[in-house]
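for the recovery benchmark. tokens below, seq after
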């Protein structure tokens, strides 16, 4: 965990008094993504699984459709004040040239797109529209996924400061779990894993996230052809709108044996011992 965590001194205050002690924190560093030498974007992330992160990001942005679209991804020689490579600049060579966007990315909160424009853009850009049907997931299997995700958050155990995303089979097997300071990065990392494993479109998988379900997370699931997204916390209104528009099953407040199903409930099968609330 040498680059994922860092130690900083803190003053711990409690009812029993104060103590100076080191604390373990999640590392946050910039990653500049370049396409054929041209700067594309800079994202703040927790180092680790950067290749997966870039694959997932480029797929989410509609710039690639499969792993073979990337010929190479190499770290550039960015250095710190001691001359060591920071591994914070990644240059990607694409098989075919693509225009580098000049606007803010759809995934950023500052893009200024209205709700209808954002919905229309995702619908027209995805290469993997979700067909009707798809995997049927029992509520007991779905209810168990957040706990399995949490059990695999090793960096969160050390820091208490990271989001997580995981891809699961419909039967509840965890295939890939990634952590990051940014929830969107964690999702890009697992989508990038699926892309490199030739599992995109991921129409047989379930995406689980440790926090809330924002519009950008639903967008990423739709762009990767994932039919179901479950979140431990609440969705946003635009996330629900996009999920309904795309035919994605969106589940929020996935805690214990209760859950709220906001769209496409036909993929979720209630079974005895796992109560659900359909909202």
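predicted aa per position
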């Amino acid at each position: 965990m040498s680059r994922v965590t860092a130690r900083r001194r803190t003053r711990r205050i409690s009812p029993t008094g104060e103590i100076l002690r080191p604390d373990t924190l999640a590392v946050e560093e910039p990653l500049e993504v370049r396409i054929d030498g041209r700067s594309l974007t800079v994202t703040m992330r927790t180092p680790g699984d950067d290749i997966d992160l870039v694959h997932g990001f480029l797929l989410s942005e509609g710039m690639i459709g499969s792993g073979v679209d990337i010929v190479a991804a190499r770290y550039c020689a960015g250095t710190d004040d001691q001359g060591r490579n920071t591994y914070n600049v990644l240059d990607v060579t694409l098989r075919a040239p693509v225009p580098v966007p000049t606007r803010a990315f759809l995934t950023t909160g500052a893009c200024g797109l209205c709700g209808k424009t954002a919905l229309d853009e995702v619908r027209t850009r995805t290469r993997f529209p979700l067909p009707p049907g798809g995997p049927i997931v029992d509520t007991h299997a779905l209810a168990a996924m957040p706990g399995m995700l949490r059990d695999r958050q090793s960096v969160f155990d050390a820091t208490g400061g990271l989001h997580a995303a995981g891809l699961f089979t419909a039967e509840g097997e965890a295939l890939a779990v990634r952590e990051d300071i940014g929830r969107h990065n964690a999702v890009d990392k697992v989508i990038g894993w699926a892309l490199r494993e030739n599992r995109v479109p991921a129409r047989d998988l379930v995406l689980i996230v440790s926090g809330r379900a924002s519009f950008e997370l639903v967008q990423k699931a739709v762009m990767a052809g994932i039919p179901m997204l479950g979140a431990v916390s609440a969705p946003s209104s635009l996330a629900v709108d996009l999920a309904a528009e795309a035919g994605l099953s969106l589940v929020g407040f996935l805690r214990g044996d209760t859950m709220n199903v906001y769209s496409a409930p036909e993929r979720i099968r209630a079974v005895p011992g796992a109560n659900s609330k359909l909202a």
